[in-house]
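Hi all, long-time lurker, first post. I run a small reading group and we've been trying to get comfortable going from sequence to structure in the token notation. Rather than ask abstract questions, I figured I'd post a concrete chain and ask someone more experienced to write out its structure so we can walk through it together at our next meeting. Sequence below, copied exactly:
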Amino acid sequence: MTVLDLDFVRSQFPAFDSPVLSSHAFFENAGGSYPCLQVVDRLTRFYRDRKVQPYGPYPGAQAGGAEMDEARDRLAAMMGVAREEVSFGPSTSANTYVLAQAVRKWLEGTGGAIVVTDQDHEANSGVWRRLADEGIEVREWQIDRETGSLELPSLAALLADGMVKLVCFPHCSNVIAEINDVAAICAMAKDAGARTVVDGVSYAPHGFPDIPALGCDVYLFSAYKTYGPHQGIMVLREGFGFELPGQGHYFNHGTLYKRHTPAGPDHAQIAACAGMADYVDALAAHHGIAGDAAARNRGVHDLMRAQEAAVIQPLLDYLSARNDLRLLGPREAARRAPTVAVELNRVAEPVSEDLGRNGIACWAGDFYAVRPLTALGIDLEKGVLRMSAVHYTSAEEVTRLIEALDRVL
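-- Answer (accepted) --
Happy to help. Here is the structure in token form:
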């Protein structure tokens, strides 16, 4: 198959049969996706049959440890990295915070600078900006004030003196949604002698990354937005991971996935993350996508993106034609994630409440994207209305959304 089988996809998500959730068309995916059946089953099984200290010398403990290892092994294979390069933590915000503490010690006394952007969700901006309090220079790669885009020539100017040691930027913004050219940005940074940290939280729900193709040193995303449990996942490449001072227990510093994990892992949720790989493999098998885990992942990624672009383009066209709102980000679905934010001529949150009464689940506010919204001149008191889809969103649901917007606006 070359087109995503939406009936099969939706059959993998219990939420669509839920009497509570199925009453509304769900457009709050950027806040957290529905979990797939495979994750729900694995989490249930772990709490029922494996909820003991893992790796111990008895059956339940050994089964629990094996499932935790399986999650790391399979996610690593999907993303084209070594198993030791995949770390789990309580959230992406927590993982980024720990990483920033390692970078603080790494740069201490070197005179090295960091580049951040004003396109980011605050989790991948604030922790880096606070390093300025420790005497580390922080440079801002600013978006275009009209389009919200990050332009490569502006980054080149920031890198020109050779003092930048780390570039932190999003794969895409959670309100602007334009997909940044990660490979080109990472190549430019590498040529200037800098490492790269990519916030993939807003992109990974639309296809797990091919890390070698992107060329980054760190890629962070959240499992609860990629159809899994509430865990943060950090891909930290070996060369950089061992260069950074360890943040975990000193006796764990020789193991990369423990080196920067200061808290004990959530055994059940890590084990359940293998369900995300189960889901990708189920999609690959159903659609005739063959090859190793990385090849299957790339094929599923392309299916997801094609479906999303086709389904969300009518919404972009509809919003672009209205003169009473401002659509953030590109008007072409192929250039963006299907996370669609608009500035209205009124406070946005009551509109989301009206949409809720019209069978549409979405929300409004600043979504912790205070810096990009401010840079775009948007009144934070008004906020933006955000409607976010993923590959399981149907064309019929988008039609329902458009009709509801017509009534409400």
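A couple of things your group might point at:
The first strand starts at residue 25 and ends at 26.
The chain has a mean pLDDT of 97.
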